[in-house]
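User: Second chain of the day. Same drill as before.
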Amino acid sequence: MTAVVWCNGTLVAQLLSLDPTDRGLLLGDGLFETLAVFNHMPIWQRDHLARLAAGAALLGIDCDLSLIESAVASVLGEAAHPHGILRITLTRGPGVRGLAADGKSPSLLVTLAPWSAGTLFTPVKLTTSPIRRNETSPASRLKTLSYADNILAAREAAAAGGDDALFLNGKGEIAATTIANLFILRNGRLATPPESAGILPGIARKTLMALTDAEERPIAPADLLQADAVFLTNSLRLVRPVHALDGTALNRDDAAVARVFEKLCQSIAEESGIDPRKADAL
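Assistant: Same format as last time:
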């Protein structure tokens, strides 16, 4: 499946022409959401759009949800395959110089890329990043275009042989990884860091918390070593067990984590009509 692109009202079949004053391009002044699509159904779309709208309101960016929904429908209508990866990007749009300047009008980009189930439930090795997550910043809880810290941490992790980087916050507590929320399982109880730890409140995280009795609480690095299992969640990879941290093997109750994975897969099957583990078979 080739990518399908919608930009500011038009389906695009060639390279985009970008306004050189767009604040998303120049300053990372914008937000994005990434959704899995199964059977032409954007999974957890309502929650993703609600998070986008809330972030846009905080940043003072106009967010026309009806336009976004129409753009998503247009893109999905062009899809040659029932499964894909949908990205919605919203920027403040073109504007004059100055950090506090307004944009002329928001820019909206919606793209659909091919889906691959290759990372579903694959084990992860984490390395702790020296970069700290700023839990005092509202941006730590938004899915902004400003991903420099995440990129640097991910590249450092890859250079060290890791699959993802773990962020601590300014208090030395566990926050999240570059692309996922973190859960621990101990004595049959699930726990995940609270939003106050400086995390992006993930949609897969939210869904899993509604399906289980997981609690939000501060988590220390030592808690990962003492846990019965550690795993990550996000909207595309769903659940991935963590098998090592900084070269130290962690406890692996993968059977318990698999039961958590099953809950998310069942939730998606109820919404889309297909289990994501079977998506590539179509």
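The two ends are 13 Å apart (CA to CA).

User: Great, on to the next one.
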